[in-house]
Amino acid sequence: xxxxxxxxxALQHKEADRVPVYPLVNSIARKTVNATYDQLAxxxxxxxxxxxxxxxxxxxxxxxxxxxxxxxxxxxGAKLIYPKxxxxxxxxxxxxxxxxxDYDKIKAIDVKSGKRMMDHVKLCRLLMDAKGHDTxxxxxxxxxxxxxxxxxxxxxxxxxLVLETEKIHKAMEEITKTLIEYCDxxxxxxxxxxxxxxxxxxxxxxxxxxWDDIEGPYVERLAKHIHDxxxxxxxxxxxxxxxxxxxxxxxxxxxxxxxxxxxxxxxxTECKEKYxxxxxxxxxxDPCSLMTSSIDDVVSQCQKTIDLFKKDGGFILxxxxxxxxxxxFELAEVICNTGKTYGKY
Length: 345
Known about the structure:
- The chain has helices spanning 3-11, 26-29, 37-42, 44-58, 71-75, 115-131, 144-152, 154-163, 165-187, 208-214, 216-228, 244-251, 268-275, 295-309, 330-341, and strands at residues 63-64, 80-81, 89-90, 137-142, 193-197, 232-237, 255-258, 280-285, 315-319.
- It has one domain (3-341): TIM Barrel (Alpha-Beta Barrel), CATH 3.20.20.210.
- Strand 8 (280-285), helix 14 (295-309) and strand 9 (315-319) form a beta-alpha-beta unit.
- By secondary structure, the protein is an alpha/beta fold.
């Protein structure tokens, strides 16, 4: 059974030969091609080679196209800083939205004229050509509110959410128009799913009601658009107290990648009982714990996670957020090997 078949069964809430494995190891993939972070971010051919290498080296069952969270913001005019050993991020001294009046300047852009989004489309195509026949390729897209925060800065945007709601919505509309065009170009590559990072949909940042009001309508449109094109929608959110309820209602995702217990569940057992039949659960090994964990600790954490979520399929063993960029491959191999052995059905 290949990865595409295995993950397909998991998404249908059926038991395959074993639990699919998918630690989010994009950051360390650069080490397979001796590249720095900035090189991976700016060269889609090098990035594709790195992601293919790490997939084959670890036997990953899913390829996610995440490079950093600034891809879309860059094409909206954000000035980025590209560190060699960390993910790209906007320069806070040169924000696109400097004052609340600048929200009105945010207009939908021609995606084909942008470099980073088109580089990502190229990355998707390269990965599909090389691995799409036997491995699911999941395109990673930052949600509209996340993009807006990159253009404004989170602290300032949080104040604006209360004081300048109308301006926020106008900018969100323009960003969403752009994302629809962007997703259409991604879908043309044949990817198996698009995963949206809904950064703010958790108790870590916004209330459930505020998130649903501010971003909910826009991600609902995006998800419907993708579903109408016959492609799966997935969500990634590593926040504490993720809002499964609102996001499932809005987006009807085939899978959710998460780290912490959902806001309306007391523990992961309740999460499986409440949501395990509604969406496929991807997670939820704590990547921060890996920094101080022994091999035995990681095996134990993987086994406990498998025991919680494995029954009846609908589960993919993964880190709940990105694998630490400073680590080597050893613990990623441990996660994969534990899933492939202990996770047998």
